Amino acid sequence: xxxxxxxxxxxxxxxxGLHMGRIxxxxxxxxxxxxxxxxAQIGDYxxxxxxxxxxxxxxxxxxxxxxALREMGELAAELxxxxxxxxxxxxxx
Length: 93
Hints:
Blueprint: E1 5-15, E2 18-25, E3 28-33, E4 45-49, E5 52-57, H1 59-72, H2 75-81
Antiparallel strand pairs: 1-2, 1-4, 2-3, 4-5
């Protein structure tokens, strides 16, 4: 199952013309495409699905979701499944 996982933006940058970010997922750092959330800033909590930020969430909701995923044992599995995802520019296939 693929879930949208909450994470906190720790760095924002451009890479090959894409708005990107380094995201902290409960201690695991990942590179994520922020093109769908151009207003996202360092410190924001976002939901990420298959390498793309899809929405902003408040900190309380993000932490509550991370706690629930940890309890279910799903957090590590979801983060590991994203390792195989290849980031592509939005609209490319």
